Amino acid sequence: MVKMRKRKLKMKNILLLVLVLLITSGGLASYGIYRNVAKSINNMYEPLHRDSEQQNTAASHDPISILLLGIDERPGDKGRPDSMIVITVNPKTKKTTMTSIPRDTRVFIRSKNTFSKMNSAYTYGGIEGTVQTVEQLLNIPINYYIKINMEGFKDIVDAVGGVTVNNRIDFTLEGVHLLKGKQHLDGKTALTYARMRKDDPRGDFGRQQRQREIINEMIHEGAQLKSLTNYQKILTALEKNVKTNLTLDKMIDIQSSYKEAVKDVKQIEIQGEDKKIDGLWYHVVTDEKRQKLSKKLRRQLNLKS
Protein backbone atom coordinates (compact mmCIF):
# COMPACT_ATOMS: atom_id res chain seq x y z
CA MET A 1 0.00 0.00 0.00
CA VAL A 2 2.83 2.39 0.88
CA LYS A 3 4.67 1.43 -2.31
CA MET A 4 1.55 2.10 -4.40
CA ARG A 5 1.18 5.54 -2.82
CA LYS A 6 4.79 6.44 -3.64
CA ARG A 7 4.29 5.46 -7.26
CA LYS A 8 1.20 7.66 -7.53
CA LEU A 9 3.05 10.62 -6.03
CA LYS A 10 5.86 10.15 -8.53
CA MET A 11 3.38 10.15 -11.42
CA LYS A 12 2.00 13.47 -10.19
CA ASN A 13 5.51 14.85 -10.48
CA ILE A 14 6.00 13.56 -14.04
CA LEU A 15 2.96 15.62 -15.05
CA LEU A 16 4.52 18.67 -13.44
CA LEU A 17 7.84 18.07 -15.16
CA VAL A 18 6.22 18.04 -18.58
CA LEU A 19 4.20 21.06 -17.54
CA VAL A 20 7.13 23.42 -17.10
CA LEU A 21 10.58 22.08 -17.90
CA LEU A 22 12.06 20.33 -14.86
CA ILE A 23 9.33 21.11 -12.41
CA THR A 24 9.94 18.34 -9.94
CA SER A 25 10.23 14.60 -10.48
CA GLY A 26 8.93 11.54 -12.30
CA GLY A 27 8.25 7.83 -12.07
CA LEU A 28 5.70 5.13 -12.70
CA ALA A 29 2.07 4.70 -11.68
CA SER A 30 -0.78 2.25 -11.82
CA TYR A 31 -4.48 2.35 -12.74
CA GLY A 32 -3.65 3.16 -16.36
CA ILE A 33 -2.25 6.61 -15.52
CA TYR A 34 1.23 5.75 -16.77
CA ARG A 35 -0.20 4.60 -20.09
CA ASN A 36 -2.11 7.89 -20.52
CA VAL A 37 0.94 9.96 -19.66
CA ALA A 38 3.17 7.95 -22.01
CA LYS A 39 0.63 8.37 -24.82
CA SER A 40 0.39 12.12 -24.32
CA ILE A 41 4.16 12.60 -24.16
CA ASN A 42 4.55 10.51 -27.29
CA ASN A 43 2.16 12.90 -29.06
CA MET A 44 4.20 15.87 -27.82
CA TYR A 45 7.48 14.30 -28.94
CA GLU A 46 9.05 16.00 -31.96
CA PRO A 47 12.77 15.21 -32.30
CA LEU A 48 15.32 17.41 -33.97
CA HIS A 49 16.90 16.01 -37.15
CA ARG A 50 20.20 15.58 -35.36
CA ASP A 51 18.56 13.52 -32.59
CA SER A 52 18.38 10.58 -34.97
CA GLU A 53 22.06 10.99 -35.86
CA GLN A 54 23.42 11.23 -32.35
CA GLN A 55 22.45 10.12 -28.89
CA ASN A 56 21.10 13.31 -27.31
CA THR A 57 21.08 11.79 -23.85
CA ALA A 58 23.58 13.15 -21.37
CA ALA A 59 24.85 10.93 -18.60
CA SER A 60 22.71 11.02 -15.49
CA HIS A 61 24.83 13.63 -13.72
CA ASP A 62 25.93 15.79 -16.66
CA PRO A 63 24.63 19.38 -16.83
CA ILE A 64 21.96 19.98 -19.47
CA SER A 65 20.51 22.92 -21.36
CA ILE A 66 16.91 23.40 -22.47
CA LEU A 67 15.52 26.03 -24.82
CA LEU A 68 12.01 27.13 -23.87
CA LEU A 69 10.07 28.81 -26.67
CA GLY A 70 6.72 30.54 -26.36
CA ILE A 71 5.37 30.74 -29.92
CA ASP A 72 2.77 33.29 -30.98
CA GLU A 73 0.87 31.11 -33.45
CA ARG A 74 -1.97 32.44 -35.57
CA PRO A 75 -4.19 30.80 -38.23
CA GLY A 76 -2.36 30.56 -41.55
CA ASP A 77 0.86 31.85 -40.02
CA LYS A 78 3.88 29.83 -38.90
CA GLY A 79 4.27 32.16 -35.94
CA ARG A 80 7.22 33.74 -34.17
CA PRO A 81 8.70 33.28 -30.70
CA ASP A 82 7.19 35.68 -28.18
CA SER A 83 9.45 34.32 -25.45
CA MET A 84 12.86 32.61 -25.56
CA ILE A 85 14.52 31.34 -22.40
CA VAL A 86 17.60 29.12 -22.14
CA ILE A 87 17.66 27.00 -18.99
CA THR A 88 20.92 25.41 -17.84
CA VAL A 89 20.83 22.87 -15.02
CA ASN A 90 23.87 21.60 -13.13
CA PRO A 91 23.05 18.69 -10.78
CA LYS A 92 26.47 18.73 -9.11
CA THR A 93 26.44 22.38 -8.07
CA LYS A 94 22.64 22.17 -7.66
CA LYS A 95 22.15 25.41 -9.57
CA THR A 96 19.93 26.46 -12.45
CA THR A 97 20.05 29.54 -14.68
CA MET A 98 17.26 31.06 -16.76
CA THR A 99 18.59 33.34 -19.52
CA SER A 100 16.05 35.38 -21.46
CA ILE A 101 16.92 36.22 -25.06
CA PRO A 102 15.28 39.45 -26.30
CA ARG A 103 13.36 38.62 -29.47
CA ASP A 104 14.87 41.66 -31.28
CA THR A 105 18.46 40.57 -30.59
CA ARG A 106 20.54 41.02 -33.76
CA VAL A 107 21.97 37.65 -34.78
CA PHE A 108 23.43 35.99 -37.84
CA ILE A 109 20.96 33.62 -39.53
CA ARG A 110 23.13 30.98 -41.14
CA SER A 111 20.42 29.57 -43.44
CA LYS A 112 19.82 33.03 -44.93
CA ASN A 113 23.48 34.16 -44.71
CA THR A 114 22.38 37.47 -43.24
CA PHE A 115 21.79 39.32 -39.98
CA SER A 116 18.26 39.54 -38.65
CA LYS A 117 16.23 39.52 -35.43
CA MET A 118 16.42 36.50 -33.15
CA ASN A 119 12.73 35.63 -33.49
CA SER A 120 13.01 35.49 -37.29
CA ALA A 121 15.22 32.40 -36.93
CA TYR A 122 12.02 30.47 -36.24
CA THR A 123 10.25 31.98 -39.25
CA TYR A 124 13.13 31.01 -41.54
CA GLY A 125 14.12 27.66 -40.06
CA GLY A 126 11.54 26.51 -37.52
CA ILE A 127 12.72 24.90 -34.32
CA GLU A 128 15.82 23.50 -36.04
CA GLY A 129 16.97 26.94 -37.18
CA THR A 130 16.15 28.51 -33.83
CA VAL A 131 18.19 25.96 -31.87
CA GLN A 132 21.10 26.42 -34.27
CA THR A 133 20.98 30.23 -33.96
CA VAL A 134 20.78 30.17 -30.15
CA GLU A 135 23.74 27.80 -30.01
CA GLN A 136 25.71 30.13 -32.26
CA LEU A 137 24.75 33.23 -30.23
CA LEU A 138 25.66 31.79 -26.81
CA ASN A 139 28.33 29.30 -27.92
CA ILE A 140 26.73 26.47 -25.94
CA PRO A 141 24.99 23.28 -27.02
CA ILE A 142 21.22 23.07 -26.63
CA ASN A 143 20.35 19.55 -25.51
CA TYR A 144 16.56 19.82 -25.45
CA TYR A 145 13.77 22.19 -26.35
CA ILE A 146 10.20 22.74 -25.19
CA LYS A 147 7.92 24.70 -27.51
CA ILE A 148 4.66 26.10 -26.12
CA ASN A 149 1.84 27.69 -28.10
CA MET A 150 1.30 30.99 -26.24
CA GLU A 151 -2.46 30.98 -26.92
CA GLY A 152 -2.70 27.56 -25.32
CA PHE A 153 -0.44 28.69 -22.48
CA LYS A 154 -3.51 29.95 -20.64
CA ASP A 155 -5.00 26.43 -20.67
CA ILE A 156 -1.86 25.09 -18.97
CA VAL A 157 -1.99 27.82 -16.30
CA ASP A 158 -5.66 27.04 -15.66
CA ALA A 159 -4.85 23.32 -15.42
CA VAL A 160 -2.64 23.92 -12.38
CA GLY A 161 -5.10 26.30 -10.76
CA GLY A 162 -3.58 29.64 -11.80
CA VAL A 163 -0.50 31.51 -10.57
CA THR A 164 0.16 34.18 -7.95
CA VAL A 165 2.30 37.15 -9.06
CA ASN A 166 3.42 40.49 -7.67
CA ASN A 167 2.45 43.00 -10.36
CA ARG A 168 4.62 46.14 -10.25
CA ILE A 169 2.62 48.19 -12.78
CA ASP A 170 -1.06 49.07 -13.04
CA PHE A 171 -1.97 48.50 -16.72
CA THR A 172 -4.66 47.53 -19.21
CA LEU A 173 -4.02 45.32 -22.24
CA GLU A 174 -6.41 43.52 -24.60
CA GLY A 175 -9.37 44.37 -22.40
CA VAL A 176 -7.72 43.01 -19.25
CA HIS A 177 -6.94 45.42 -16.40
CA LEU A 178 -4.35 44.37 -13.82
CA LEU A 179 -3.88 46.29 -10.61
CA LYS A 180 -0.52 46.82 -8.98
CA GLY A 181 0.29 44.36 -6.20
CA LYS A 182 0.09 40.69 -5.35
CA GLN A 183 -2.75 38.77 -7.02
CA HIS A 184 -3.78 35.36 -8.29
CA LEU A 185 -4.16 35.10 -12.07
CA ASP A 186 -6.08 32.66 -14.23
CA GLY A 187 -4.78 31.59 -17.63
CA LYS A 188 -6.16 34.53 -19.61
CA THR A 189 -4.83 37.20 -17.26
CA ALA A 190 -1.51 35.36 -16.86
CA LEU A 191 -1.04 35.45 -20.65
CA THR A 192 -1.76 39.20 -20.67
CA TYR A 193 0.67 39.66 -17.78
CA ALA A 194 3.35 37.75 -19.72
CA ARG A 195 2.82 39.71 -22.94
CA MET A 196 2.63 43.34 -21.76
CA ARG A 197 5.59 45.47 -22.81
CA LYS A 198 4.63 49.01 -23.86
CA ASP A 199 3.52 50.22 -20.41
CA ASP A 200 6.61 48.80 -18.71
CA PRO A 201 9.47 51.32 -18.25
CA ARG A 202 11.90 48.42 -18.75
CA GLY A 203 10.24 47.40 -22.03
CA ASP A 204 11.18 43.92 -23.21
CA PHE A 205 13.34 43.32 -20.12
CA GLY A 206 10.31 43.89 -17.91
CA ARG A 207 8.28 41.45 -19.95
CA GLN A 208 11.05 38.85 -19.78
CA GLN A 209 11.13 39.22 -15.99
CA ARG A 210 7.37 38.61 -15.78
CA GLN A 211 7.64 35.57 -18.02
CA ARG A 212 10.32 34.07 -15.78
CA GLU A 213 8.19 34.93 -12.75
CA ILE A 214 5.22 33.03 -14.20
CA ILE A 215 7.38 29.98 -14.89
CA ASN A 216 8.65 30.00 -11.31
CA GLU A 217 5.10 30.43 -9.98
CA MET A 218 3.81 27.57 -12.16
CA ILE A 219 6.52 25.41 -10.64
CA HIS A 220 5.38 26.50 -7.17
CA GLU A 221 1.67 26.00 -7.86
CA GLY A 222 2.25 22.67 -9.53
CA ALA A 223 4.30 21.41 -6.63
CA GLN A 224 1.37 22.12 -4.31
CA LEU A 225 -0.99 19.72 -6.12
CA LYS A 226 -2.15 17.15 -3.62
CA SER A 227 -3.88 14.66 -5.91
CA LEU A 228 -4.16 13.34 -9.46
CA THR A 229 -7.81 14.28 -9.83
CA ASN A 230 -7.09 16.79 -12.61
CA TYR A 231 -4.22 14.94 -14.32
CA GLN A 232 -6.24 14.38 -17.50
CA LYS A 233 -6.98 18.09 -17.78
CA ILE A 234 -3.27 18.83 -17.46
CA LEU A 235 -2.38 16.20 -20.06
CA THR A 236 -4.98 17.52 -22.51
CA ALA A 237 -3.66 21.09 -22.18
CA LEU A 238 -0.08 19.93 -22.65
CA GLU A 239 -0.78 17.61 -25.56
CA LYS A 240 -2.57 20.37 -27.49
CA ASN A 241 0.03 23.06 -26.91
CA VAL A 242 3.48 21.56 -26.30
CA LYS A 243 6.15 20.02 -28.53
CA THR A 244 9.50 18.74 -27.22
CA ASN A 245 12.35 16.36 -27.97
CA LEU A 246 12.30 15.14 -24.37
CA THR A 247 11.16 11.55 -24.07
CA LEU A 248 9.37 10.10 -21.05
CA ASP A 249 12.48 8.06 -20.18
CA LYS A 250 14.59 11.22 -20.21
CA MET A 251 12.08 13.03 -18.00
CA ILE A 252 12.29 10.21 -15.48
CA ASP A 253 16.09 10.37 -15.65
CA ILE A 254 16.01 14.13 -15.11
CA GLN A 255 13.82 13.63 -12.07
CA SER A 256 16.33 11.46 -10.30
CA SER A 257 19.40 13.56 -11.10
CA TYR A 258 18.35 17.18 -11.56
CA LYS A 259 15.38 18.02 -9.32
CA GLU A 260 17.50 19.49 -6.48
CA ALA A 261 19.08 22.01 -8.89
CA VAL A 262 15.69 23.54 -9.70
CA LYS A 263 15.45 24.87 -6.14
CA ASP A 264 18.26 27.39 -6.79
CA VAL A 265 17.41 29.44 -9.89
CA LYS A 266 19.41 32.46 -11.08
CA GLN A 267 17.82 34.77 -13.64
CA ILE A 268 19.99 36.37 -16.32
CA GLU A 269 19.20 39.16 -18.79
CA ILE A 270 21.18 39.76 -21.99
CA GLN A 271 22.16 43.40 -21.81
CA GLY A 272 22.62 45.36 -25.01
CA GLU A 273 21.75 48.58 -26.79
CA ASP A 274 18.70 49.28 -28.96
CA LYS A 275 19.87 50.54 -32.35
CA LYS A 276 18.28 51.23 -35.71
CA ILE A 277 20.11 49.43 -38.52
CA ASP A 278 18.94 49.51 -42.16
CA GLY A 279 15.58 50.88 -41.06
CA LEU A 280 14.91 48.26 -38.37
CA TRP A 281 15.32 48.40 -34.59
CA TYR A 282 17.55 45.74 -33.06
CA HIS A 283 18.79 44.80 -29.61
CA VAL A 284 22.55 44.84 -30.25
CA VAL A 285 24.80 42.86 -27.92
CA THR A 286 28.54 43.56 -28.08
CA ASP A 287 30.92 40.65 -28.61
CA GLU A 288 32.46 41.41 -25.22
CA LYS A 289 29.14 41.04 -23.36
CA ARG A 290 28.15 38.01 -25.41
CA GLN A 291 31.45 36.27 -24.68
CA LYS A 292 31.18 37.10 -20.98
CA LEU A 293 27.71 35.55 -20.83
CA SER A 294 28.89 32.56 -22.85
CA LYS A 295 31.70 31.87 -20.39
CA LYS A 296 29.24 32.01 -17.50
CA LEU A 297 26.89 29.53 -19.15
CA ARG A 298 29.71 27.26 -20.26
CA ARG A 299 30.97 27.08 -16.67
CA GLN A 300 27.45 26.19 -15.60
CA LEU A 301 27.49 23.36 -18.16
CA ASN A 302 31.01 22.24 -17.18
CA LEU A 303 32.38 23.16 -20.62
CA LYS A 304 35.80 24.65 -21.34
CA SER A 305 35.72 28.44 -21.83
From TrEMBL:
Q: Which GO terms describe its biological process?
A: cell wall organization
Keyword rRNA processing: yes or no? Answer: no
Top-level taxon in the UniProt lineage = Bacteria
Q: Which residues form the Cell envelope-related transcriptional attenuator domain?
A: 80-221
UniProtKB keywords: Membrane, Signal-anchor, Transmembrane, Transmembrane helix
Give coiled-coil spans as residue ranges: none
Pfam families xrefs: LytR_cpsA_psr
Q: Which family does it belong to?
A: Belongs to the LytR/CpsA/Psr (LCP) family.
PANTHER family tied to this protein: POLYISOPRENYL-TEICHOIC ACID--PEPTIDOGLYCAN TEICHOIC ACID TRANSFERASE TAGU
What is the name listed in the Swiss-Prot or TrEMBL entry for this protein?
Answer: LytR family transcriptional regulator
**Which organism does this record belong to?**
Bacillus swezeyi
